[in-house]
Amino acid sequence: MLTPTFSGTEGPRSERVLIVDDVPDNLALLHDALDESGYTVFVATSGEAALARARQAQPDIVLLDAVMPGMDGFELARRLKATPATAGIPLIFMTGLTETEHLVAALEAGGADYVTKPIKPKEVLARMQVHLRAAAQAQGAVQTRRALDAFGYASVTVRLSDGRLMWQTPLARELLQRHFPAEPGGLLPAPVRAWLAQQPLRAQEHLREPPRFQHEQGARRLSFALHPSGLENLDEGDECLLVMREQSDAALIEAMGLNFRLTAREAEVLYWVVKGKINRDIGDILGASPATVKKHLERVFAKLGVETRTSAAAMALNRLRQLHPQWEL
After folding, report:
1. What pTM did the predictor assign?
2. Which domains does the chain have, with CATH numbers?
3. Which helix (H) or strand (E) holds 230?
4. How many CB atoms lie within 10 A of CB 47?
5. Is the Cβ–Cβ distance between 90 and 61 less than 8 Å?
């Protein structure tokens, strides 16, 4: 059996190709052509061996024969696509079966493309380049979104025609569930859909300053911003990228309580007074009656040495800006 070959022309990032075929002549032809082109080549002569080699080598692309004894190429493709570690690898079928039903079966099994036998190495190389580029771009997008998550941002891809979430990072899913627990999981929340529907997506100024939407939930704020890339060319049926970020004033409330020697609940009441909320609204937010809020506020007035809401708010706002100069109402 042929073994992996490392050509002297390949660099440290040489792309890895797994060839799966039970005919030695086919393996040798492709192995030599790919090796000369600088690829790292792995081979397998059966579906079972290919599964093990794919898990071990993590190839960037797989060329697989459709007809093999035992596990054929169709079943191999289905198993590769069903395994998370190999599901994203592009698969190109090599087949002598030219009936439409067989070609459709190859694509339905997870194949990205197919070439017909007898194999023409130049054609295979050209097809590979197309799918390797597409896979690299997709992987780059995933890595970018994961990086956004790592820095406290989250992103979702939304279909403009109906607001359906086509893709979302784990952090985005968590934030949407936290802020919109009653909304259907597969759709962008209704308030955000309504905001998105009002945006003139083709406007050039959006490339300089993306439109934003903000949803408040207690001391937490979840903002949505349209990613500027490609907005000028969007149509109703297209998809767009929304970048989300959650901000919380919980630390500020705690610091305000410590500075003014307030209890946790008194600090919360004062925070919402600064935000311009009346007692009834504060009660709704904190799950308390307006009368209870009034009692907390009276104790706040006494501790701050003031007599009115306006004075308490002004003193607290001044202290908040000292603690956090960037803080805004």
Report:
1. 0.44
2. 16-143 (3.40.50.2300), 152-248 (3.30.450), 251-323 (1.10.10.10)
3. none
4. 23
5. yes
